[in-house]
């Protein structure tokens, strides 16, 4: 008894609390004891410092909760990376034995899709050439209508003199092989360099790509384009950065400094491409990569009739501005598509690991007016320490966002 009392007194973990009379307490961090007058705040059971990763506050709000296990309408998710289940192994060895475990995962994914009311997943990174053909036969052959594939550019040929015409022809071949769109990753603008590693970055509106954009329009292959990254990845990783924890966990995700262009320059170059190729349909992934500023995205949608957007991995931004986001969905209800950036093994994009709970956060955001809930099924929010609010879309908008906007763009049946 005596010992426990003593250890309590010696503990540096003290909270402030009010006491009657004067007591002896140790001054935090000093080990010394001082007299505190009656009514003063005294310390008890609080750490002087708390590591940010140890801070796991539990919300004390008592508010209605409407978990949403299943989407109200059949979903077309236009932004996934499903061929990741096959990994690199399948490319090296296309034998049936190697495919076996991947197909088991696919079976699991399809049973989740049925459970969640997901009709179709669009595999954006389907590769090109033989890889694309294999992904089409692996994904579309086994499960008719449940998966789609997009082609990606062959940047490894960019510096060859006939590249522009070859790339345009390659889109023809991709369409014949079964591709339904063209995917542009953030590599264009942030990683792709003239001579492999050290040359200058290739600009998004590089004229060598003009024939490709043009061909995509002629072939009715929408361009799913990811440009730049969250605003916070283009500012210093300091105590003012709202995604400090995420950047601390992934320092290579920061594009601040070095020879990276400012984010606004990257978006402006992308917009010049959209403007220059008015007959090509563009889908700006991640809310055209600027969900932090929906006024600006609205301006782009007004200016470029050939632009649509997708919402993948941006619940954290949309859901913390629910009134503005709701207006955005009302204003552009015919041009917003459902997407998640779902990745099967969670290694590429850990916060969007393909699991039912990840999809259910999207359903809850879109369908309910719930307040202050997690945008990702994880004890620590992966992007930042905030919660989101539902926007409770009416049925006719939900139907468009979940299904019909993508169906119309991809020539599928509407509901
Ligand atoms: Zn993605």
The backbone outline, from C-alpha atoms, is globular
Biggest β-sheet description: 5 strands, parallel
Q: Kindly report the oligomeric state of this protein.
A: single chain
Number of discrete helical segments: 15
Mean pLDDT: 88
Strand content: 5-15%
Core attributes:
415 residues; alpha/beta; 5-stranded parallel beta sheet; 3-stranded parallel beta sheet; 15 helices; 10% strand; disordered N terminus; binds zinc ion
Describe the structure.
By secondary structure, this protein is of the alpha/beta class. Helices cover 37% and strands 10% of the residues. It contains 15 helices and twelve strands. The protein has a five-stranded parallel beta sheet. Strands 5-6-7 form a three-stranded parallel beta sheet. Strands 1-4 form a two-stranded antiparallel sheet. Strand 2 (23-26) and strand 3 form a beta hairpin. Helix 4 (129-142) runs parallel beside helix 5 and helix 5 (163-177) runs parallel beside helix 7 (210-218). The protein is globular and about 70 Å long. The N and C termini lie far apart (72 Å). The relative contact order is 0.12. The structure holds zinc ion.
């Amino acid at each position: 008894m005596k010992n426990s009392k003593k250890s309590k007194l010696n503990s540096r973990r003290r909270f402030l609390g009010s006491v009657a009379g004067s007591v002896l307490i140790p001054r935090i961090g000093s080990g010394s004891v001082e007299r505190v007058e009656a009514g003063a705040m005294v310390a008890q059971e609080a750490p002087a410092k708390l590591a940010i990763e140890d801070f796991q506050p539990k919300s004390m709000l008592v508010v209605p909760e409407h978990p949403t296990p299943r989407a109200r309408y059949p979903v077309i998710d236009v932004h996934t990376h499903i061929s990741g289940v096959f990994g690199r192994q399948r490319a090296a060895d296309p034998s049936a034995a190697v495919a076996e475990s991947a197909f088991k995962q696919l079976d699991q994914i399809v049973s989740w899709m049925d459970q969640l009311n997901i009709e179709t997943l669009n595999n954006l990174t389907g590769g090109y050439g033989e890889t694309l053909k294999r992904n089409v036969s692996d994904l579309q052959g086994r499960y008719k209508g449940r998966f789609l594939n997009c082609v990606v550019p062959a940047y490894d040929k960019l510096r060859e003199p006939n590249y522009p015409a070859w790339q345009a022809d390659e889109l023809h071949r991709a369409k014949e092989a079964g591709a339904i769109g063209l995917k542009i990753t953030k590599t264009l603008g942030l990683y792709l360099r003239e001579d492999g590693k050290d040359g200058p970055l290739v600009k998004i509106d590089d004229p060598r790509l003009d024939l490709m954009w043009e061909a995509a329009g002629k072939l009715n292959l929408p361009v799913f384009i990811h440009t730049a990254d969250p605003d916070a990845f283009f500012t210093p990783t300091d105590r003012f950065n709202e995604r400090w924890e995420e950047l601390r966990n992934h320092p290579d995700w920061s594009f601040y400094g070095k020879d990276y262009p400012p984010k606004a320059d990257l978006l402006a170059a992308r917009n010049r491409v959209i403007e220059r190729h008015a007959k090509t349909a563009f889908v700006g992934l991640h809310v055209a990569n600027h969900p932090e500023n929906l006024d600006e995205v609205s301006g782009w949608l007004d200016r470029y009739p050939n632009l649509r957007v997708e919402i993948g991995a941006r619940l954290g931004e949309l859901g913390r501005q629910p009134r503005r986001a709701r207006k955005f969905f009302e204003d552009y209800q015919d041009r917003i598509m459902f997407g998640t950036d779902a990745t099967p093994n969670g290694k590429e994009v850990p916060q969007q690991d393909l699991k039912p709970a990840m999809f259910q956060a999207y359903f809850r955001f879109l369908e309910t007016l719930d307040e202050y809930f997690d945008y990702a099924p994880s004890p620590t929010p992966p992007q930042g320490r905030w919660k989101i609010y539902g926007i409770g879309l009416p049925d006719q908008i939900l139907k468009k966002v979940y299904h019909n906007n993508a169906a119309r763009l991809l020539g599928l049946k509407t509901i």
